[in-house]
Design goal:
By secondary structure, the chain is an alpha+beta fold. The chain is about 50% helix and about 15% strand. α3 runs antiparallel to α5. The termini are far apart. The structure holds zinc ion. The site of zinc ion (ZN) has 8 residues, from α2.
Length: about 150
Amino acid sequence: MPDALAGLYQQVILDHSRARTGEGPLPDAAAEHFERNPTCGDEITVRIRLASGSDRIEALAWEGDGCSISMASASVLTDLATGRTLAEMGEVTETFRAMMRSKGQGEPDEEVLGDAVVFQGVSKFVMRVKCAMLSWVALEACSTKIAARA
Ligand code: ZN
């Protein structure tokens, strides 16, 4: 990755870690899940509300505390997940996970990942991959809880 692009990506991560889209409580949540990353100390609770009679995510909100990567990733996830179905987010999550396991190699699919491509640089740092994945894993757990009820 060229340095200029890496710098831009770092800026997007910093912006999201400050803006924290989706941070706060969520009434009428269909599911919630708490996830912790002990290696870094990040903690997050992700909650989702579904549109009535469907598996479309009407709202995602989260509360947590942690490093800028974990907080920025939750913020980006909020933007991506809102309005998508659980099944669609399952596919986006698999694409994100593949990128985070790439160790900085490969071409991430920006069509699918949107702003989440900025975390590609993080995939080079094995210790930080869990930071970026934390909120995504929590959303997956929410999805699993809802599926178990159906
Ligand atoms: Zn972290």
